[in-house]
Amino acid sequence: MKIITQILILSLLVLPACSGVGSLTKKRYQNAENTIVLIDMTTRDYDLQNAGSQLQRAIEDAMVDTSYALAGESARYRLKYKVLEYDEGSRALRIASMGFSDWAKSKLRAKVALFDGRDMVGAWEVNSWVAGGPTGGTEEKLFERAAKEITSHLRGDF
Predict the structure, then answer these.
(1) pTM above 0.70, yes or no
(2) Domain segments of the chain as ranges
(3) Rg, the chain, Cα only
(4) Which residues have a Cβ under 8 Å from the Cβ of 115 and sit 6 or more positions away?
(5) Within 13 Å, how many C-alpha atoms sit on residue 61's CB side?
(6) What's residue 18's pLDDT?
(7) CA of 6: how far to CAs of 10, 15, 16, 63, 88, in Å?
(8) What is the homologous superfamily of the domain 34-88+109-127+143-155 according to CATH?
């Protein structure tokens, strides 16, 4: 019994040391094939501009799930979007109605286009809403859903 205990202790100390990983990278090139820049074309209305900046943050967070890398003006692709309609609704009424009332829901409508240089390679309209539920839903969830819809188009899921 003592020998088995010693073998188990020895194997626990030795076996984890038998794995590892190493990497050496030398890079002298720039991969501009899947770079993208986000351009907000929203009008000067303050509420819509605020919605446009919230949508941009949500898209930037959602870009992690795509093969595109956010870049500056030297990017190959340009994703232009414009918030057409934004109504934050009433969270208290969404909680009270448990999401069954349309007049309390939060809504976002935006037009989005993907350009490769000067050529438009895709365009779509995104409608997002939060109807409610026990917690009433948040505006953050509204923008997350819109961004997820936009990035799913970028991946080619539609």
Answers:
(1) yes
(2) 34-88+109-127+143-155
(3) 24
(4) 77, 78, 79, 80, 121
(5) 14
(6) 41
(7) 6, 14, 16, 51, 66
(8) ABC-type transport auxiliary lipoprotein component (3.40.50.10610)
Residue 61 has pLDDT above 80, yes or no: yes
Q: Please answer whether residues 145 and 128 qualify as being in contact, where contact means their C-beta atoms are separated by less than 8 angstroms.
A: yes
Looking at every residue in the chain, the average pLDDT score rounds to 77
CB burial class (10 A; 0-12, 13-18, 19+) of residue 117? Answer: exposed
Tens-place pLDDT, residues 83-114: 998 887 766 766 666 556 666 677 888 999 99
- The residues pairing with 81 across neighbouring beta strands, listed in sequence order, are 40, 112
Token couple for 81: 């979007």
